[in-house]
Protein: Aldehyde dehydrogenase
Amino acid sequence: MLLVDTVVENNNNKNQHIDPRMNNIGMEVEETVRELRQYFKTGKTKSVAWRKNQLQALLNLVHENEDAISKALYQDLGKHPVEAYRDEIGGVEKSAQSSLNSVEKWMAPKKSSMPLLFFPAKGELLPEPLGVVLIFSSWNFPIVLALDPIIGAISAGNVVLIKPSEQAPACSSFLANTLPRYLDSNAVKVVEGGGDVCEKLLLHKFDKIFFTGSPRVASIVMTSAARNLTPVTLELGGKCPAIFDHLSNPSDFKMAVKRIVGAKWGICSGQACIGIDYVLVEEKYSSELIELLKKFVRRFYGDNMVESKVLSRIVNKQHFQRLCNLLKDPLVAASIVHGGSVDEANLFIEPTILLDPPLDAEIMTEEIFGPFLPVITVNKIQESIEFINSKPKPLAIYAFTKDETFKRKIVSETSSGSVIFNDTLVQFLCDTLPFGGVGQSGIGRYHGKFSFDTFSHEKAVMHRYLCLEIEPRYPPWNKFKLEFIRLAYRFNYFGLALHMLGLRKQN
Ligand code: NAD
Structure:
């Protein structure tokens, strides 16, 4: 469904103070949400067959449209086809295939042990879909960040309304035109548009909102969701640090730097929520680190960034300008040790390394989300923990170190969505680990089974039988009844003890 196509363009009657275009969108959104809710009520999306069909259809969509997706990603972000496959197309295929393989197992009720107090009884946990799910996705990975949550939502048996990012228009249009051709169009609908359309969407009641984007918009989404007590998952960003401990073995040092360069600039030119925002290193090793960073930058991305076609471009003029402004501060500009050149016509920015820019400059107080890499020096690498803790909790912390004590310290003394040792960004592809932030970097998590759980409610089901009555649970009360209940509760522990000794089997 393409709401923006049906928009009435002119509003000549200014006296009415009503924008008919928005009125129209509002009505279409209302109708769409109503249709989705009606369809959910038929119960069709709950069957395992429906879920598997949809996952297979999504796989077919990706297989049959690999070129079209690649082209759209190139149009929106200048992503190289290899990068497009590695970070988006391949990721969706992997995720859909593993959900297809596992969905039946995930849906199965799980037995729950019943304390002796409830004898005779049986308990189970039954995952059920939430209902109508609203998904907002971001522009930097416009395919995977739209399709991955859809995989979770349909695996869990929900119906979905998705609003792709308007800042990646080719991908948004691809999704709007293609999803209804492959998936059950009664259950998965696409709405295109910007903030105005989002506001209309948020006027409605959904059973779950899954949002990927900035903390600023997330707070608008959460405020609207609160009106209907709608649960939210917020996948946000922040400043992800990389701690670079001294690696005495030259080949370790080299591999670590290579991984930093590959991840910082080779993944959407630094426009990634889990991208490295800055590197912390001991002062005495900083020049060695910077020299090697430069070497790998030249090796991977060449001298002419436009011609080499390896780097993605900046998404649009507005973000290009935002990034250029970060370098305008004279103290920041003076800290550039590599790069800094920009190509406005093609929206390219050279991989840029800065050494100790001022810590109160915007480049160090805001999420960079672009191809600048500040290297921040500390006297002792342990101080990096304090540095990280002085900022909001990041989505990820990367640490290159072989020191096991330091690793334990990082894990126990910092808080972040994830901690990755000796690599960067690979966690996004690992479905057996949850993906999500904490604090400022997000609420909730997804990927693999975690996605299924995010879009499900685990219902507690208890079966009791109309036999064996315990009369002391009913009034009128007396002392004997109180003692009986006390004893029964204690006997419950006795039952547990028997179970632990292996004398009683768990249900
Ligand atoms: P954004 O917040 O501007 O937009 C995100 C989505 O919200 C888009 O679909 C947009 O159309 C919609 N939106 C815009 N105005 C809205 C409104 N008033 N109400 C409701 N929705 C509205 O973010 P962005 O520019 O797309 O992405 C950049 C941010 O997203 C960065 O902070 C980045 O770290 C974060 N991000 C996080 C992840 C993650 O997985 N954690 C992934 C990508 C990006």
Residues 136-140, 145, 163, 165-166, 194-195, 198-199, 202, 212-214, 217, 220-221, 235-237, 273, 367, 369, 395, 442 surround nicotinamide-adenine-dinucleotide (CB under 6 Å). Residues 1-16 have pLDDT under 50 and may be disordered. The longest strand covers residues 121-129.
